[in-house]
C-alpha cells in the first residue's frame, strides 16, 4: 500500500484546527493523529524541516487534548531534528519545553534528561547555554530528592566551565556538587568535590579563597577523615612555605589521581602564579588568624 503524501496529510490536519464557514469547531484530536502521521512520512523522506514542523504541531495537539507526556515526546523529536538542522536556538527552546511538559506529568527524571540532551547538543556551539541546561537539570533532580543522579551533570558542567576558563564558576559548581553528594551520603564524592574546588582556586592562584574553602570544608567531619583532606592540607602547607617541589609532589598524590580528568590536568600544572607573592599572602593570613586567637 502506498504511503500517504505527508503534504496532503499535513494540509488535512491544518484544516481540522481552523474555523471556517463550514467548520464551527476544531478537531484537535483528529488533527494530532494526522500531524503524527505526517511527521513520520516526512522523516522517511528525510525532509527534516517539515518533519520538525509536524512534530511541533503534534506536540501542541497532544497538549491541547491534555496528554502532556505525548506532547513532551513529540517536542523532543522536534528538538532532535532542530539539532540535525543546526537550529541551535530551537534546540534549547524545544528541550526546555519538553522538560516543562514532563514536569506537568510529575516526572522529574525525564524532565532532567530532556535538558541534558539539549546541553549535550549545545556543548560545542553554545557552551554557556549548555551550562544553564546542566544547572537546571540538577535543580530538577535535587528538588525531587534525586541528588545521586546529578553527579555526571555536575561533572559535565564543571568541565565546560574549565574549558571556558570560568574557574570561579567551576569551583562554585564543584561545591554545589559537594552539597548534593552530602545530601545522599555519598561521602567519597563529597570529599572529591571539595578537594577539586580547592585545586581550582589554587590554579588561579587565589590562595585566600582556597584557604577559605579549605576552612569551610574542614567543618565537615567526613572531610576531616578523608585522603582528600590530607592532600589539601599538604598542598596549602606547601604554598605557605613557598615550596614548589612539595606542591608538585602533593599534586601527584593518589587522592588527586582519582579526581576527574579536568581537575587532574589543573593539579599537574601547579604551582601557577608568583609563588613568593602567594607565600606573603599566606603568611599575612596566618598572622591575622594568630592575632584573632589572641584577642
From TrEMBL:
InterPro entries associated with the record: NSF_attach, TPR-like_helical_dom_sf
Keyword Lipid metabolism annotated: no
Membrane-topology annotation of the record: Peripheral membrane protein
GO cellular component, one term: vacuolar membrane
Compartments in which it is found: Membrane
Keywords from the UniProt entry: ER-Golgi transport, Membrane, Protein transport, Transport
Gene Ontology terms: biological process: intracellular protein transport; vesicle-mediated transport
GO molecular function, a single term: soluble NSF attachment protein activity
Gene3D superfamilies named in the record: Tetratricopeptide repeat domain
Family to which the UniProt record says this protein belongs: Belongs to the SNAP family.
PANTHER family to which the protein is assigned, alphabetical: GAMMA-SOLUBLE NSF ATTACHMENT PROTEIN (PTHR13768:SF2), SOLUBLE NSF ATTACHMENT PROTEIN SNAP (PTHR13768)
UniProt protein name: Gamma-soluble NSF attachment protein
The organism of origin for this protein: Vanilla planifolia
